[in-house]
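Run log, item B.
One chain of 128 residues. Sequence copied directly from the ordering sheet:
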Amino acid sequence: MDEQRLNAVSLAVVQAAIEIHRTIGPGLLESVYKACLRYELRERGLANVAEQVLPIRYKKLVLDGEYRIDFLVEDAVIVELKAVEAVLPVHHAQLLSYLRLADKRLGLLINFNVPVLVKGIRRIVNNL
């Protein structure tokens, strides 16, 4: 996916998240925000897979167990949702690891537990 389209998808996800935050506000469970984001992405015509299984590979070995990313949007942008007091460095590292494992370039880490959502959004780029 070219950079312009990637940015357009990212913007649409951010706009959807802002709509959710304006409507229901902070302080709810992550599962509520996930359900709302899935609805908003569909309403915007964005293809998305929730709870996308991400196998763990090490060289030629596929390990038992798996990770589930919150959303894969347009087969290009990984979206990881949080509803926490503070986003920690481990949350950034988690998303970057997901980007690397999935061979994707762009991820959004969105924490809904903030007074103004734009302060809870982090854009993370995997320099393939």
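Observations after the first pass:
- Strands lie at 48-58, 61-73, 77-82, 106-111, 121-125.
- The CA atoms of residues 76 and 104 lie 6 Å apart.
Flagged for discussion on Thursday.
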